[in-house]
Write a structure and sequence with these properties.
Layout: H1 2-22, H2 29-50, H3 56-75, H4 80-90, H5 111-146
Length: about 150
Amino acid sequence: MKFIKRVFRFISKLFAYVPLLWKDEDYDYGHILSLLRYKLKRVRLHILKHDIIVEAAEVAAKIAYAELLIQRYLDDDFFPELQKAHDDKWGEDIWLAKPDALYCRKNVTIKELDEQELKEQREIYRLQDQERERVWKEIWTHLNDTMREYWD
């Protein structure tokens, strides 16, 4: 009887993972993060549903924060307000639409403006890279500090 329950639980879990596995690939660490985020969510919901550990709500909140950090990293949308302000100032990127264009932005008409736009864009990229790295480190620090609490 115990074996039959395990088989049904396995089949149920297999179906739960199908949407995630359908999109899974073996060449990108982002897919590892997606699997981890999904597993953290399952653990969080299990802990809350069954109230199986002391301070279940607090532990669930820590897990939810880990999920949030991972999602933020996967979204890869750091400082969108800076990028939008830059795009508003310099105009749309026309380089892809017109590869033979002299300058890559609509409002860039001379070399000096091109240099200024590039300098500002590089600063935004630097800030985005810095924040991406900060979130990456925070994911692993948070998991290192809290993950051993996620047990039933």
